[in-house]
Structures are given as C-alpha cells and as structure tokens.
Design goal:
alpha/beta, six-stranded mixed beta sheet, four-stranded antiparallel beta sheet, 12 helices, 13 strands, about 25% strand
Length: about 325
C-alpha cells in the first residue's frame, strides 16, 4: 500500500471498468496534506475517472482509496463533507448575482442568514469580487465565473479540493487568476488534486505530478524529477518560415524522433533530443545549412514537461 503518513489522499490498486472498457487498471498514488498534486494524461487515460472515484461519484470495482482519512466507499458521506470539486464548467445560477450564489451555497450548507452574509463578504473580498458580486452571473467573464464557482465551494473550508481542468477555455489572464487561487488554497493548508491539459500549468503549480495512461500511473515525481528522466537536453529549431518544418525534419534526418514532426503540428518549431549537447547542435546546424533552410532561431534547452510527456506516453501533451 502507498505510504499514508500524513497523506490527505491515499489510492491503492483502484480498478474501474465500464462494460468491456478498463478505465482504471490498478491506479495507486498518494497526495500529502497541503500540497498540489498534478494529474496528467491524454484523453481517455483515466484522469477524470480517478477524480470521480475519489469524490464518490463512481464506485471502484476493486482497490481502496481514502480521502481526508475517510474510505470513499464505506464513508462516502464523510468524504463529501471534506471535499470540494469543480469541473470545466461553473455550476452557478445564472439569474442570481455572485453574492446571492455564495449565500445560497452557504444556506444549503446549514448556515443561518447572518452567517451566510458574513461568509459571502469574506469570500468576495478574498476573490476580488466585491463589486462584480453585486451583478448577475449571466454577465460574468469566464474567469469571474471560475472565481465565483471556487468561492461557492469554499463556503465551508474543505480538506481536499478537486480541480478537473479548471482553466480549460479561459483566456491567459483568467488562467493566471486561477493559478493564483490554487496557490492561495495551498497556503491555507488545503490539498489540491489538479487535472490539466496544460503541461505548463502542472509545472508551475504542482508539488508532485503523476502521469496516467491507459488507466495506470506510468510516471510520478516532482517536475524536476520527471524532467531528469529524459536524461538529455533538447535542441529547438525555429525556421524563418513556419511552413518549412517538414523541410527541417527532412534535413535533420535521423536526429528527429519518429513522432516529433507529427507532434509539432500547428507549432512554429521542432524539438529534438540533443544527447551530445553542443555537438548535436553543431550537427543540426551543418545539416540545415547544407539544405539551405533559413532559421529564425536554434538553441539548446533543458527538458520540459512536454518532452517528459512524449517520452513516457509516446505523444505530447498537446494531444491529450
């Protein structure tokens, strides 16, 4: 069984099937208290199924899991009282104001009218929504909806928060706002499980990361530990004309991994392993010069989480 010392979430050998489809095949991991655990994986890998099992929305076929010290099967009600869950779309009443939504959630959680108002004041100030909180949610931007959604979930302080791709569809500014909120949750000692399709997001926010593919955990560690697994630096080539990526790949020949060009579709650059560092860079330059490919830039860089994702799953995070 995974080490449960001071862990907010302990998952041991969880299996879940839907008919003949095996969504989870023995998933095991832990999340320590007051930390952010990033859960990465391609579409259909089992990320959301894992979160649904842990939040008691799905019952596992076998294996055990505890959240905030409670078994997700035998103590489901206690788990629900200890968690908050938010998905890609905010569950708000469009006709009510932000304040009214928070007060409604507070009353549903058993607070009296005065307590609900006081808690709404605190959360609106914390989430920088005091003025917008007076307006109907129907006029909110995506980022404001996400903040109100999170505020509603924090009416009663949870032990564990599940954020299932919380920044999907948000503009960069709103995404940064959600990142700040995740950091604030951690500062309060709240454990956060974050599924995301943005590798940069996991890199910035997560204390620890697990990669799920085909229903199993195939990699686990800090961002730096996972990057170290690739064991090499990378050479990034940016042609002057982005339409020449195919010509770049042809010129570089056996320096380019099999899936690298396909995974760069829609990008303006090609990334290749550079096991020999500067020597690989020099050889790439020689081949590109011989092929008369004009470059905007070429450089060595450290591995990124995208490189890790490619190494452990066979495709990049952009194809999740």
């Amino acid at each position: 069984m995974p080490n449960s010392h001071d862990a907010a979430v302990v998952v041991d050998g969880i299996h879940k099937s839907f008919g003949g489809v095996h969504a989870l095949r023995g998933v095991s991991f832990t999340a320590e208290r007051g930390t952010v655990l990033g859960i990465l994986g391609p579409n259909g890998a089992g990320k959301t199924t894992t979160v649904k099992v842990l939040s008691t929305l799905l019952r596992p076929d076998s294996g055990t899991a505890t959240v905030a010290g409670h078994n997700v099967v035998s103590e489901a009600q206690a788990v629900r009282r200890a968690i908050m869950m938010t998905g890609q779309y905010a569950a708000l009443d469009e006709n009510l104001s932000g304040r009214e939504n928070i007060e409604l959630f507070a009353r549903l959680m058993g607070m009296d009218k005065r307590g609900a108002r006081r808690r709404a004041d605190e959360l609106l100030e914390q989430f920088d929504l005091t003025e917008p909180g007076k307006r109907p949610v129907s006029g909110y931007s995506g980022g404001m909806r996400r903040r109100i959604d999170l505020a509603c979930g924090l009416v009663v302080r949870p032990d564990v928060v599940f954020l299932d791709e919380p920044t999907t569809g948000l503009d960069p500014r709103s995404r940064q706002g959600v990142w700040s909120l995740v950091a604030a949750l951690k500062e309060q000692g709240i454990t956060v499980l974050l599924t995301t399709q943005y590798l940069e997001e996991a890199d910035v926010l997560s204390d620890n990361i697990i990669v799920i593919d085909h229903g199993t955990v195939i990699a686990e560690g800090t961002a730096d530990q996972l990057k170290a697994r690739t064991g090499t630096s990378y050479c990034e080539v940016v042609p002057l004309d982005p339409q020449q990526l195919a010509a770049v790949a042809t010129a570089l020949g056996d320096l380019v991994p099999a899936n690298a060009l396909a995974d760069s579709d829609g990008s303006d650059r090609l990334s290749i392993p550079a096991p020999d560092g500067a020597k690989t860079l020099a050889e790439a330059l020689r081949r590109l010069d011989n092929a008369q490919v004009e470059l905007a830039d070429i450089a060595l860089r450290r591995p990124s989480l995208d490189d890790v994702f490619l190494a452990v799953t066979g495709h990049t995070g952009g194809h999740q």
